[in-house]
TrEMBL record:
SUPFAM superfamilies: Fe,Mn superoxide dismutase (SOD), C-terminal domain (SSF54719). Residues 20-33 have a biased composition (Polar residues). Its EC number is 1.15.1.1. It comes from Nonomuraea africana. The keyword Kinase does not apply. This is superoxide dismutase. It is an enzyme of class 1 (oxidoreductase). Residues 26-106 form the Manganese/iron superoxide dismutase C-terminal domain. Residues 1-36 are annotated as: Disordered. Belongs to the iron/manganese superoxide dismutase family.
Amino acid sequence: MREGRTVSGDPGGLEWACRTGSQQNPRAATSGVQGSGWGVPAYEPLGGRLVVEQVYDHHGNVGMNTTPLPVFDAWEHAYYLHYRNVRPDYVEKLWGTVNWDDVARRFADATSQAG
């Protein structure tokens, strides 16, 4: 993400980048967590880019020095009651619950500290 990009659904915006993934897809990362865990689109300051991380089973496998933006819960307790074992349908609905103002604040904070 280059400086000056906005949080929006337009190409180049943070929401667009989180939804589509520049190199990795957040939907696939969250849906594909083996067992239980989280999908995490995050800002990586060294490269000045968005990355997608998978955190599984309470392990500390989050990239060092990244700032999580939205975090998607892929533990069964989060979706099984309504979606049974169809995690991808649950993940698709998560996008409607994202507080993009909070994501924008987290992104702005992360990019201002990266300088």
